[in-house]
Design a protein that fits this description.
Strand order of the largest sheet: 2-3-1-4
Number of strands: 4
Strand content: 25-35%
Number of helices: 3
Distance between the termini: 20 Å
Oligomer: single chain
Largest sheet: 4 strands, antiparallel
Shape: globular
Helix content: 10-25%
Structural class: alpha+beta
Radius of gyration: 14 Å
Length: 102
């Protein structure tokens, strides 16, 4: 599996707008071949960024999503620059060990 974590430093006062964008587009990425799951992680402290974490069957599935028209539609009309406390950061990982509860 392949994990992509997008760390997004949302500015104070923009949290609700940021979260609403994901609620309004729910169901889009789920249609993508190779998509496994998505979590939007809200930070406990204002200095910590949100994390948008997606899990994919493999890197090829993620790359196909990034090149798709659905990806472009999902990222159209972004929030204004003042909605963020600086640049975000994307981290990508290959899962080498996974554990779940029985």
């Amino acid at each position: 599996m392949y994990i992509v974590a997008n760390r997004v430093p949302v500015a104070e006062g923009w949290e609700e707008s940021f979260e609403a964008r994901f609620r309004q587009r729910a169901g889009q990425v789920e249609k993508s071949n190779g998509f496994v799951s998505m979590q939007i992680l809200k930070p406990d402290s204002p200095e910590t960024p949100y994390v948008v974490m997606t899990t994919w069957r493999d890197r090829a599935a993620f790359d196909a999503w990034v090149g798709s028209p659905d990806f472009r539609a999902a990222h159209a009309n972004p929030l204004p620059k003042e909605a963020f406390r600086g640049e975000g950061r994307i981290e990508q990982f290959e899962v080498i060990i996974s554990a779940t509860a029985d």
